[in-house]
Amino acid sequence: MMHLAFLLLITFTDGTFSKDVCSYQDVLDYLNLTADNSVFKTTRPVLDYKQPTVVKLDIILYAILAVIEKTQTFIPFVWLLMMWNNERISWDPAEFCGITQISVPKEMLWKPDLFIYEMVQKDHASQNPYIRVSHDGTVFAEEAMKVVSVCKMDVHKFPFDTQSCNISIGSATHDVDEIRLLPSSNSARITQFSQDTIKSQGEWEFLHLSITSHNFTLGKGTWETLTYTLTMKRRPLLHVTNFLLPVLFFLILDLASFFIADHRGEKLSFKVTVLLAISVLLLILNDILPSMSNKIPLIATYCIVIFALMLLSLLETILVTYLMEKDSASQEKLKLKNNREDKQETVKTKNCNTEDTKQTPCLCICTASDKSLELLPMTQKVDNSIQSEESNALLLILEELKELQNILNLHLGCRQEGGTSGHWAARIDRAFFIFYVTVVSMFLSLIVIAWST
Fold first, then answer.
1. DSSP state of 123
2. Nearest CA to 345 among 423, 282, 401?
3. pLDDT tens digits for 100-124?
4. 3-state SS, residue 271
5. Whose CA, among 23, 75, 263, 424, lies 20 to 30 Å from 283?
6. Spatial CA neighbour of 248 closest among 191, 306, 199
7. pTM of the model
């Protein structure tokens, strides 16, 4: 009895070992799945054509490669996961040593003709050449692709902006009666999975990924579209340090230039240099922002207003410089006039000295100093019997007093004739500085409030 049981065990064991030796080719032979069999790849894999093929999708964001505002282009690197059912394929894993799935080349099976509506450039990277097939007919396809897509961007709050770009997937030839598109995961799960797997974000911070489905009618058919919306926020530190702060520093320099002396040319040249520096930054900004926008970007308003204020400051400096030059020219003119009068009086005095000072010394004295009579009224009481030497000494004293009177008249004339321009220049400069500081403070406050809301 023991020998019989042992023989039976050996027999059954040998039979089992012979069936346990299996391969993927056995499954392919059983399914009759070969490269030249067109049944599996020419038409939709359904037994009843009225039944739609349900395709489940997932998009996982792997990297944000570039966001180009100038051309409104968004370039992410994504993983596209697709799953659908092939009703012509099925086998029992128990008959094939527990094989539950196999991998076959993509060319051997039908695949849904899905494409991305926003994609403007074909991805030339190498693709996964295989797809996985489960024993119940479920087909899994994975594709990693670089998506060069268009994205309508709102740069009104640049560089403190948040952008949302869409990746819309749909079928090119099959309408909603033939292919249904459904998401495999909800928005929260796919967002979490993307945040865990993302490798590169650059200046952008990925926030969340939402999924929506909608249908659109074209001609006689209705197509279903699955839209993935990627929301991301810009990291503004680079633009703040390289653009906003330099513009603000140039504005502070322009404010500080009000303390430079007006009668020199350094103030005017300094303001022109600062204005040229702002112009260079505006050229850099023009290369970043798009040519067309629904709203004027706040950063453009920020730069243009500061540029206008600095231009107005330059014009005010030119006006003040003109008034100061006019004042200086008036003083020079008055000085030349007084010097000419001095020369004429000197000539008269010398002519008077050549005459007979013994007869009419007082008359010569009065003639040579007709303007000095007011300062020296006592000279009229000089005795007619004064000697010639005393008369000459008195004339020298009168000449010295004449020079002092001319200097006094020069200063008084500067205040009366030429001092008006300098007075108005100082008042204009002071008033414009107060106006300039007030406008700059109000404008910067408004810009900060607009960027923060």
1. -
2. 401
3. 999 999 989 999 999 999 998 888 7
4. helix
5. 75
6. 306
7. 0.71
